[in-house]
Every structure is written in C-alpha cells, then in structure tokens.
Design brief:
This protein is α/β, with parallel strands linked by helices. Helix content is 45%, strand content 19%. It has two domains: 172 residues, Alpha-Beta Complex (2-enoyl-CoA Hydratase, Chain A, domain 1), CATH 3.90.226; 278 residues, 2-enoyl-CoA Hydratase, Chain A, domain 1, CATH 3.90.226.10. Strands 11, 14, 16, 17, 18, 20, 21 and 22 form an eight-stranded mixed β-sheet that branches. Helix 2 links the parallel strand 1 and strand 2. The radius of gyration is 26 Å and the shape is globular. The N terminus is likely disordered.
Length: 596
C-alpha cells in the first residue's frame, strides 16, 4: 500500500515537473518570437494595393502583443497584435505617398476607443484625402453594421457601404456612473473621504446615492461639447445639416433598415461583402478572379520603433494610471520611479534634442505625479524644449505632469483638467464585527498608533489631519499649474476645483495652448530645437517585455477572464471597488471614462 502511494506521489511530482518544464520552454520560445517581431524584412507591396484598416476591437496608443494563453503556448501560436494609434496614423500617412497604394479600405467591425483617439485617426484620414487630391480613394464597409465609433471614422470616406441586413447605431453620448454607497453600507464597509474640489467627482460613488448637481453640470458640459464636435464633423462630411443629423440620431436609427439609412443620406449603398470587394477590384484594376492586394498597417510600416541613429526628438508615452509601484507586473500604468529614470536619461543624452510627452492618463498617485513633474522640470532646465500631446485623457495627475510643458496640445475631444485631490480610507469595522462576528483587539503605544487600520474608524482629529494633508497637496498642485501656465495661483483655483474640461473648453480657459495631436507637438519641439520638421523621432519606453512580467501578466489575465465570465455585468463594479480598496495613496485621479 505504501509502495503504491509512493509511486502515485512520485508520478504526480514528475508530471508537475514535466508540465512546468514544458511551460517554461514554451514561454521562452514565445518570448523569443516576440523579441524577433519587427526585425524582419519589409513586406513587398504590390502595385494596386489597398491599405486595409480592420477596425476591430480596442485601439491603443501603441501596438502591444496580448499575453499568450496556455492554449497559445501549447500550440506555438501567437495572439494577434493589438492595434496601435501611432501605427495606424503612420500607415495612413505612408499610404498617401506610396505609389503602389491605390486607396484605403476601412472595414468596420467595432472600433473601441475614446473620442480623442478616434479624432486623431479621423484627422489622419482627412489629411490623406487632402494630400492625394482625389487620386486615391477611401471606401468603408460594415458587414453587421456601423457602431458609433466606426461611423465617426467612416464618415470621412468617399463611399460607405453596408450589408443589406446591417444597421447603423448612432445614438449620441452618455455617461453612466455606478453609485456604491448603499451597497457598501449593506456589506459593512465605510469609505472615509477627504478631498478638495467641488467638482472632484471620483469619490462621489462612495459618498452619495446619485450624481451631484456639480458633477451633472460638468458632465453635461463636456459631453455636449464633445458630441457637438463629433456630430458637426459627421454632418459636414455627409453634407447634412447638424440639426437634421441630431434629429435623425434621436429617432433611434438602429431600428431602421439598411436601405432606409441609405435613403436618409447617411450611407451610400448596400451590398454583400463579395460585391463590395468587386467594387474595390474595379477601382484597383484587379481581375474579378484574382484576390485583392490588401496590405495591413504592420506590413506597410516596418520602421515604427527603429532606434534613431543620431539627433532626434524623444516621444515618451505616459499611458495609464500613475502609481508608485515600480514592478513590471502592471503594464497598464505609469510607474513613477521608472518614468523619472527615463526622463533623466533623456536629459543626459546629447542626441535627444527635445521631448514630447504623450499623455493618456486619468491620473493617480499625487506623490508619483510630483516626482515626474520634477524630472520634467529638470529636463527643461537642461535647455531642451518640452511639449505635451494629450490623448484621450490628461486629467488630474495627468494634467499635473503636463502642466510645466513649454506648449500643451490637445484634441478638441480630449478630457483634461480635474485639478483636484482626494484620499479614500476604507473602514471595515462594521463588516468585521457586525457582519462576520470578528472582534479585533488593538494594543498601542501612542494615541494614534492605530491610525490607518482598516478595521477601525478614524477619529475626527485623524480625519482633520488627513484633510490638512490633502489641502497641502492641492495647494502644491495648483502652484505647479500656475507656474507652468504663467498665471496666478488664484486664477488656476477658479478653474480648478476638480472640474473636468473638454479640449476645446480647456483652450478657452488657458489650460492648453493649441488644438492638435502628436505630429503638431513634434513639429513644435523640432522648431524650438532648431531641427528640420521631418527630423527623426524615437519612442520611449521600450515595448520589450521581460520573461517574468510576461508570465505574470498571462496568469493574471487568465484569472481576470474567468472572473469576468462568472460575474458578468457585475464584474466592472467589482473591479472598480477592488482597485479603490487596494489604493493607499493620496490621489489626483478622475474615474469617469468616455467612449463612443
């Protein structure tokens, strides 16, 4: 019996060792395959090719390879690369001057992006039309139908087609904010809040049962401004009066047939995919029996992250929440110390003649934001020009790190401002004692030794001390903004109070200098540095992943997928609450998200 037991144990142990060995080898091979990406020869582009933009899924700031699943590792395959805005814009720009590219095919399968990302991509398509002067085409097709983000982009096209059973979902914009106060009361968790800023709405879900008048006011303002920009651009390209377009939007367009949508002038024709491809073949002089010569952005753009060999402008991406965690386990964040290290190295590099900070962040740690601000200030002190290009969000801490730039660029649909600060300290005393029956005994040496324990409610004096700390942080925040913008601190406080602004409004009140994107920011820095407008650029930080981070990211991703499947609609609320309970910093953060 014992012998049989030992055999089973040894067999299981060997099985585990073999499985782990296989996993490690497969992961290393996968890592090597990722490392080799982008280093191959350029794809040969045939005559009469078409740049194929498959608008499917999330559009990130930069291309990123998703973490492999166990199935990917077992099969030796690689997950598809996430679409990067910088690659899409570069591909569209290159297609305009490539004699072998006859036009662009927008395949609309559900683009997922915030308005500013879509605005930047739409601008690139408009520039393509301007540069080619009608000699090249842009055609759009949707098989199941156009989502709102798809249609915003596709409305630039010369012609838009849809499957006979397809639809158009154009409905305007809304903000949906879950308020968790009653839920937290039921489970016995109290969120103790200290904040500065009437409009600082990130903490409202823990304090109120519904939206405050101040938050409603600011949300109505920036949503109205962003939708006005989007609807006016659509109306202009479709040659429809804005008032009529909004009237159609209010009529619930998704209920209309494809032919009705065409008759309304919002689309140009209905056809099946194979008939649409025939149209493209006719435009590119390809025989009906031959395949279309479709070229993807990654096939056309092979030098996106090629290191610069000499003098260049650095483009530093600051994407995600700002945190103090400098581990490699969270790729979707701005790590304070690591960002400071990169900026310091760029300041010392004689080949780096200037810097564009590309910010797409809702903010985060106030401490890390201050450290990044200081590093950027030192960069300027080295005599090198600094500009900021704002993406979807440059709010709260995202604005903090932007405020000192020599020039700030934003899209009209960018979300920025939210100059405010808060702290959240969860108290689980009721949960532990009343709900779970767990009593916590505390022994302490001083009056406030137990301050910060989540199992004990803060005293009034402790809350007052934290409020004083937050007030001090807000004063520093507004001073940084005032110094950076060259105005008085009092004038900043008038437009601060945690209020969120759209890019166009931010321009009017002086929070940004110019409406424009990354290209405009690079051109400004090049001019300030005395370089040619077509000077080399290099992107930072490197997109290379270390082995440990990749494996951890994969494991975390698998756990998240399982949990999302089990929790369904409640997963987003759980994730937000989990992140909140896990934070232990004073924050410059904006929670609201805007998508199309």
């Amino acid at each position: 019996m014992m012998k049989k037991f030992l055999l089973v144990v040894c067999g299981s142990f060997v099985g585990v060792i073999l499985a782990l060995t296989f996993f490690v080898i497969a992961t290393i091979l996968f890592s090597l395959s990722i490392a080799s990406m982008g280093g191959g020869k350029a794809t040969s582009v045939e005559k009469h090719s078409i740049l194929h933009l498959d608008l499917d899924g999330e559009i990130a700031e930069r291309p990123a390879t998703p973490s492999p699943t166990m199935a990917d590792l077992a099969s030796g395959s690689m997950p598809s690369e996430a679409t990067g805005l910088n690659m899409l814009v570069k591909a569209i720009d290159d297609a305009a001057t490539n004699d072998k590219i006859d036009g662009i095919y927008l395949e609309c399968n559900g683009a997922m992006a915030a308005p500013a990302t879509l605005t930047a991509l739409r601008k690139a398509l408009k520039n393509f039309k301007t540069k080619t002067e009608g000699k090249k085409f842009i055609y759009a097709f949707a098989n199941q139908g156009y989502g709102q983000g798809d249609y915003y982009l596709a409305s630039v096209a010369d012609s838009l087609f849809v499957n006979p059973e397809g639809a158009l979902d154009l409905h305007g914009m809304a903000s949906s904010i879950p308020y968790l106060k009653r839920l937290m009361e039921k489970v016995g968790v109290e969120m103790q809040v200290v904040r500065v800023g009437t409009f600082k709405s990130a903490v409202e879900p823990y304090m109120l049962d519904s939206i405050s008048p101040a938050n409603r006011l600011q949300t109505e303002h920036y949503l109205g401004s962003i939708w006005g920009e989007i609807s006016n651009e659509i109306a202009a390209d479709r040659k429809i009066a804005p008032e009529r377009l909004n009237s159609l939007v209010d009529s619930i367009l998704i209920t209309r047939s494809a032919q009705e949508i065409v008759d309304l002038g919002l689309l140009d024709g209905i056809c099946f995919r194979k008939d649409f491809e025939k149209k493209l073949k006719a435009l590119t002089e390809v025989d009906e029996d031959d395949d279309l010569a479709l070229v993807s952005p990654s096939e056309l753009v092979t030098d996106l992250d090629t290191p610069a060999s000499g003098e260049h402008i650095a483009v530093l991406y600051a994407v995600g929440e700002i945190d103090d965690d400098d581990s490699d386990m969270n790729d979707d964040a701005i790590h304070g110390e690591k960002m400071v290290e990169i900026i310091d190295e760029l300041a010392k590099d004689d080949n780096v003649k200037g810097l564009v900070l590309r910010v797409n962040s809702p903010g985060g740690s106030a401490f890390a934001s201050e450290q990044i601000w200081k590093a950027l200030d030192d960069f300027k002190a080295a005599g090198k020009p600094l500009a900021v290009s704002m993406g979807d969000y440059a709010a709260s801490g995202g604005y903090y790190i932007s405020s000192g730039a020599g020039r700030i660029f934003a899209e009209p649909t960018t979300i920025t401002g939210s100059i405010g600060i808060f702290g959240t300290i969860p108290c689980m005393q009721e949960l532990m004692e009343d709900k779970l029956g767990v009593h916590i005994s505390v022994v302490k040496t001083n009056k406030n030794s137990d301050m910060g324990l989540m199992t004990k409610r803060l005293t009034p004096s402790q809350l007052a001390a934290l409020q004083q700390m937050v007030n001090r942080g807000y004063d520093l925040f507004t001073k940084r903004c005032a110094d950076g913008r060259g105005v008085s601190q009092d004038s900043i406080k008038v437009i601060a109070e945690g209020r969120v602004w759209d890019g166009k409004s931010a321009l009017k009140i002086g929070l940004v200098d110019e409406l424009g994107g990354l290209d405009e920011a690079i051109a400004w820095v090049a001019n300030e540095a005395g370089l040619d407008k077509d000077c080399d650029t290099q992107c930072y930080p490197s997109l290379e992943e270390n082995w440990k981070a990749m494996v951890t990211k994969m494991m975390n991703a698998q756990a998240e997928v399982r949990m999302a499947d089990e929790m369904g609609l409640f997963y987003d609320y759980y994730k937000e609450l989990r992140q909140t309970l896990g934070r232990d910093h004073v924050l410059c953060l904006m929670f609201d998200r805007v998508t199309l």
